[in-house]
Amino acid sequence: MDIFDKRRQSHIDHELQELFRQRAYQIACGYEDADDCDELKADPAFKIAVGRDPQDDPDLASQPTMSRLENAMTARDLLRIGYALVDQFIASYERPPELIVLDMDPTADVAYGHQQLVLFNTYEDEYCFMPFHVYEGLSGKLITTVLRAGKTPGPAEIISVLKRIVRRIRHAWPEVIIVFRADSHHTKPEVMEWVEAHDVDFATGMSPNARLNQLFALMNRSG
Question: Coil, strand or helix: which one is 180?
């Protein structure tokens, strides 16, 4: 993953790789707020995980350093991070699979305060983000994840994520069969047209409606 480091290199104490490791490990352990860096920067376990000697090496990054890192990320940087996750997924296979299932679902991430992209979601009855999580349905492996606003995704958002994943995977595995599996709010005409046009099979939910109820009633009577 190639992230351009715009900092003056002679004035830095924390390499980008160290910052990414520190942030990822702290989040994985339940410390999601950058403020937690101030309390954990001298923690021996985190220092070892990042690659620093817990006794002799300087402390890890503090909250201001971590916040500057996050605010310095560009849209192109975020896209590269997303691609890095897809590439990691591809590299996890010793040989190309015959079939993969793209399980896509936005999941509520409740937030507090006034963060960008936080919206009130009526279904969740919370202020939240609704990041996309895409897993491979047969193996359970993470393919990629994308932070997004706390609302139901529109067709353009869904297609934007799908097309990048499909293109990346098809480049590595030209013959793989791809199945898109998702809930009913992904079953939008534009999305269905896109997957059919790009030779992607699909199994998506359908919200109840009068026409479907009528068809089900007819099937039950005839069966």
Answer: strand
